Structures
1.
Amino acid sequence: MIMITIRCMMKPVRIPSLLAASIGLALYGPQLLAQDALPVLEETQTQTVEQADGLLIDRADIDAKPMANSTLSQLLKTQPGIAINDATGSVRAGDLAPEEISLANARPHQTNYMIGGVTTNNITTFKDSDSAGSLGGHTSGYFFDTDLLESVEVMDRNVDAEFGSFTGGVINAELRKPTDTFEAEYNYRMTDSSWNSDPKLDEDNGDLESPVWGDGRYQDKYQKRFHNLFVGGGVSENHKLGFGLSLQESDIPLIYNGERKDQTQTNTNMFINHLATLGAWELSNEFRYSEFTEERFLNDTFTNETDENSDYENSHSGFGFTVKLSRDFELGHWRNTVAFDQLKDERSADVDYYKTHFDYRTGFSMGSEGSYGNLDQTQDSTKLKSAFDFNDIFTGDVRHSITVGAEATLHSAEGNFHNDFHTFSQFSNADGTVELDNWVVTSAGSYKADANQYALFATDTIEWNKLTVDLGLRAEHMDLFDQTVLAPRVKGSWDFETDRTNRLSLGVSRYYSGSLLGWALTAEKRGMQANYQDCVASIDADNVSLNPNDYVCEGATQYQKINLNQAETPYSDEVALNYDLQLGNIVMNAGYLFRMQRDGLQSVYNSTLKQDELLNNMESDSHIYSIRFSNARNYHALGGQFGGFLNLGYVDSKGSGSVTSVYDNENDLNTGSQLEWVELDGELMKRSEMDAGSYNSDFTAALGLNAAWPQYGLTWNNLVNYEGGRKLTLFQRQESRDIEGVPTAVAVMSSAEMDSLITWDTKLTWTPSMAHDHFTIGLSVTNLLDEQVKISSSGIDGNSKFTDDYYNKGREVWLNVGFKL
């Protein structure tokens, strides 16, 4: 039987899987063919239900879920309270990189990504998109294929004080582990655009098909191929070794000056892990590696041509290791972790300039040329952690379970511009003179920054009769903000029945942001930049020099660095209420989460001070409701095994939404706004009072229906998903309004509600008995009904020339073949 775990603080309790439980029967069916009922596992004999403080999806559940790309975001996207940025997924269906994930309606960079309990966040290039002179990135440091994962745990409420560095939540992925018995498994998956639905466009953004669309990434043609291998087992009585390898390839022939030019993306993952028993000590070693690469080119923003100097390649790679050592002592269990990760983002480009050209020599024409420049950034992170779990202490009828620990995280980062990089506007005048304006020169060289964090934490779980109280406190010093903060975590639970199948829980907690080292690094980079204004050259317009000495400029400004110690550490407060109940074979969890995000950071350029300025002016209030129903054991009918679940979620959020023309731009920390006031649909309000927008649909519902016929080796897994239309705020213009007698700049906005969507994902798997269960063939279809509706809009409201509408992905067909020893 496949199992799924509902997590309660640090105590996982397993309940039978509802997410395609039948696939396990197909894989291990021969032992069950002679039985009329499922075997009774030890876990089901003492079935308990604990508060759903988090979700644990195990190996079998990962295998079972029908999805397209095998990424964390696609695995988690249908869970209540979890939102992903799939706004442009339809027109970029060939992409391999995962989407950003938002937990508890926090900004995506406030999700703490962990591998084996070790934070692996990319904190230097966590922006979602690249731009001239800056590297794009993803908050997650590793893009691991979910086929290489043993389990995925999500903690989005009542998070234990042992965990920090987030205001949203924690996603902890465990890589596959070797068992005593040797096993080898290979899987191949592929899809092709000719099998799938074309991206849907409307008349306003039909130009997405042509090179006039900025970065030229309209991906109507692609083929994706995924290879996955895992080998593991015992090599001696006390030692086990595991090896995992995944290679993902995507060929994307993009439109290039009226023809097709092949662009390739690859995502490679690899790990080696070692488990050992050394006397009284338990040892775990793990090495991990990941590299994502993509080829790109830029289209001229103003013409139907692609500049020959615009090609570049991005890469994001990481390698690291973790060593865990633990043992039991008379007083309790001692856990120790040492980990290191190096993450590197790099761009290799044709040229080191990007210009917008205004040509007045023969009438008037305009265009863009160049690329985003050659540069790289490297992040080194060392993590040290030690915790002691004391044996239970009894004082009368009261039991205490106490843990104390310490943690240190040492971050350093270095960036490098290989050559001088230039961004500017060029004016070629009719008289042959050349002018350059808004000319920013970043000098070749390196820039560095570092930031360390130190934490102490303590927890005490107190149990008395039907009452359980979890007390936790985390004290943390953050060098980057030069602050020491305290994060209390408290939760109380009351069991109406002694078997814990009827429980009510209430918790209040505070969480603080982790390091945002990228801002410190950006500040150092700004110190290498100079801004030249109104520069006139006496040279010929066809031979433009990029040497400032060849120009006479009206002004030149050296950018000033900013000090992050002036900022407050972003934090969030929560109130979480949960009720768990099991009646017979039905398990129910109802939850309410009130999450208050405060002191969110953004960076803006202050023209008066002539330097960047940090603002702690981002905040939101989110009410998140969820209810889950599932069956504890599978049902038997029609010769098969049947199970299912129903998840419902509702999000009501107000807060600092986007006041720019780019969809959900408030998540880009380097594109901030000083505006406190907005006029939304004619109503004047503070920015914190507007709809936050974000990636969340207000109402979501997911219905899972799964079946297995072990005697035939067949499993059939289905997921019907409903998403309410997202609420967006669209920028129109900036105007001045009289507020309490003072002329004040406000952003004039309009609201828009996108369309609701119902999709049906299905997966059919056959493991023929004549192949002795060594061979599996499967077919997955996402969005079987091929429903495509508008899910996001980006641009200036009321001006269709500068507004693009995006739809969800249409039908996708995936073929899967697997071999197992």
2.
Amino acid sequence: MKLELIGITKRFGSLVANDHIDLVVEPGQVHSLLGENGAGKSTLMNVLYGLYDPSEGEIRVDDEPVVFKGPADAMAAGIGMVHQHFMLVPVFTVAENVALGNETTKAGGLLNLARTRERIREISDQYGFAVDPDAVVEDLPVGVQQRVEIIKALVRDAEVLILDEPTAVLTPRETDELLGIMGQLTADGKSIVFISHKLREVKAVSDVITVIRRGKVVGTAEPSASTTELASLMVGRSVSLTLDKAPATPGEASFRVRDLVVQAANGQRVVDGLSFDVSQGEILAVAGVQGNGQTELTEAILGLQDHVSGSITLDGVELVGRSVKDIIRAGVGFVPEDRSVEGLVGSFTVAENLVLNRYDDAAFARGLSMSPAAIRKNAEEKIEEFDIRTQSASSAAGTLSGGNQQKVVMARELSRPLKLFIASQPTRGVDVGSIEFLHRRIVAERDGGTPVIIVSTELDEVLELADRIAVLYRGRFMGIVPGTVSRDVLGLMMAGMPADEALAQAHDVQGGDL
């Protein structure tokens, strides 16, 4: 099936999310849509899938104009979509999820799941999915849940599959398996629109690459294009994708965690007996698929979790049981994973956000009154130092781009002497150019002698920054390995294999040093 978008434009008030986009997806082709977060990729696919009406433009299927009033119309035309956040009912079986919205009945009006199970087995066997129709979805690994979403589309006879950031929640091995599945689907004549910002994966799987920047198509590329060329197209200027980082020279292990346990409200141990040290002048990266206890770990260090036991010490001082303000005053800098909710007050000015955790310091306050002149002077210095793109220090922080909002948070946290710096998902939703800058600042903090903890689900980022890597799986460390370890070893650990076994298995497979 040939799919064509002609002059697609989507406006939200005065905001133009898609600006006269042309795109052709040929049968049996992987057509990658590459762009930074906020470039308009997902909006375009939501138009294609009938979730949004286009403001202008036309969609054609096999050269015939079509109008989709909703996802049902798109599915009827042979278009399926696998969303970044799965649309599955956790307590239903695979068969029940696949049948949902596409129910068939037998005599007496009862649901006919037998035919659905049969179709699941047929598709699973055809593409090597290994999915049990009677398995309960919440018991399945994330990678298998994604296959269920693909099966849902194929059961409805989809000829074009839209995969929206499909590897965001997968381990490296699951990612490789998905890319293999994509190859099987295209060999069978299916077409795939692959939406991603990950250059490595786009290059590995694409037949053609379309790059979108600020809602417009800015170019197309062959998969043979270098990552530097693709990154430059995405950002609009030359960028460096390699970090010039000298080897660490660790000092004293001034930050120590012993037998740390964090319990959720239901009593489950989301952090389960962690013990580790971080030395002055080193970066410890915590890797793992999102949802394995990373958030609870960082929040426990900062005093944001209620049910915590064990010990957390900084320079010999116990932090467990102290207030968040006391911990910040003890010299802990913290960049949260969700800057818009936990890192910034969007309605406050850039200047105000830059002193959120220091507003009552003598440098910015006199008695009960704040000093606007000092706050503004601080903001002007940090705006220049961190290259924050804003109309002025008085602009609301919520009006800035994601990358510039992250720079505001980073500038605030790195603007005082620190004894520990923690950054959770430090470049999530940030453009390639800003990633380059933020990585340099993190390394500079390490080189100044601060212990640094980075939490990231981006394996490339972990390997770029880490001196040592701790892999978290279901609240426990699978081990702590050198930053030079291979992606294969990390992938096995992220899937729940202890470090010694992962190292041995990867060594046996590769027959070389890791």
3.
Amino acid sequence: MKRNYIIYTLLSFLMTWSACTMEEEPKFPAADNLFSSVEGANTVLNGCYSAIADFNYYGADFMHLTYFSSGLYTSNRDASLNDILIFQQTPSLNFVENVWKSSYRVIARANDIIDNLSLVELADVDEQNNILGQAYFLRGLTYFNLVRIYGGVPLITKTVTFETINQPRASSDAVYEQVITDFGMAASLLKDTDSQYDGRPAAPAANMLLAKVYMTLAGNKTAGETDYWQKAYDEAIKVYGKYSLVADYRTLWNETTSNITSESVFEIMGNEENTLRLHQLFTASNGNAGRSVWGRIKPNIECYDLHADKYADDPRIAATFKSEWVKYLANGNTQIIKSYPFFTKRNNKDKSYPWLNKYYINDHTKMNYNTNMNFVPFRYADVLLMLAEIENELNGPDNAYAYVNEVLARARASADVAAVEPADWTGMTQEEFRAAIMMEYRYELLGEGHEWFNDRRRGYEYFKTNVVDVHNNHPGYDFNVQRDVELPDNSRNMLMPIPQSEITANPNISAADQNPGY
């Protein structure tokens, strides 16, 4: 079923939060009016989606915060070279502040729906449950992001009053318990994939996120040390077969074919009028006729080299990285620029790094960065890689190959002439499979919002060895030049700092509650 939800009109009646501060301007319609019909409840739900797609959340700043601090990206923004890219973010850094504030805006709106819809029974109970399920899903996703980025955070699950607005930091365990509850509720209330509206999460999306929660809680422990791997499998297997891989990987990144595919589990929707900043963030500065793009985010050279060294003939390489592009000069002329790996010298803003091709503007003659392209943070290929990792932890690689080989077979077929790489996996030990699958997430999903989380969920030693050390020991860098930055070895970088505005405004959180090292 399809319904065209244009979800990004800011609704004047909805709550806006600053830190964990709620303001109503102007006053919004009474809850008993809004929640007396499916249409009214959907209006409030649209506000949740508007908040999650906002510039300060998934529209841009979630990418600024998590990509820059993942250790896998660089930037043409010089200021970021000196703070977040070398893990020197402060509690007052705008990205740190904005993601926190926007997250609580989503939570406030989801709480409003959950509290009020739970008090009424609408004529269409199925639709009522579906709206409730979406509110639980969005709240669960946002708390899941918060606890992984900041650690324990204020846990607010009811519409706030002035007496309850300032909450202390909850423990990480308590936040995870709430995330599990929210995704469990979402899975029980949401429609299935065959009846859910386009662009809205179906029940298996909640199962996928629950599996991710349990994989995160498992950390670097084996199945013999924790039952979280079994819990992860029990949720992930519910998603198997509910979606399907598109035939050609390249179509996932073409603006005309990327939205609402058979592979999409959940996507953040946008359009040219209410655009996400994908083109603006990921297209080279002066890379379009209007010279309206920023060129903020691009992969480090080890991302390209590791992928090319592993699978030289992998069609995903050309789909993922862009190394030749058109630059628009101030005099109106254009210039073809060849970047890494064609250009290997250092300290050149335009050439020393490749670009991420997935969100690079398709039509460089456009005068603006506006796009109809949605951002897809969760897709079915990720589920298959998750099942491969989980199965290997539980039982070794014998039955895990089938899942990852589905992804590899699609990759081979995503070329004008079928490639021979990446070849199917076989003959690995459990330890070899574990190392390989963690890298396969990167090859398949680079730039899709997972790097911060996947590389940290197995603990600091994994992050240090596979991100920090790999970067710092790469022979292609020259850390004496500005654009190449060396990453510090510091475990504080497993978390972001609690924003300074929250410490200042919330009497129940003090400087003593700040994360270690900040």
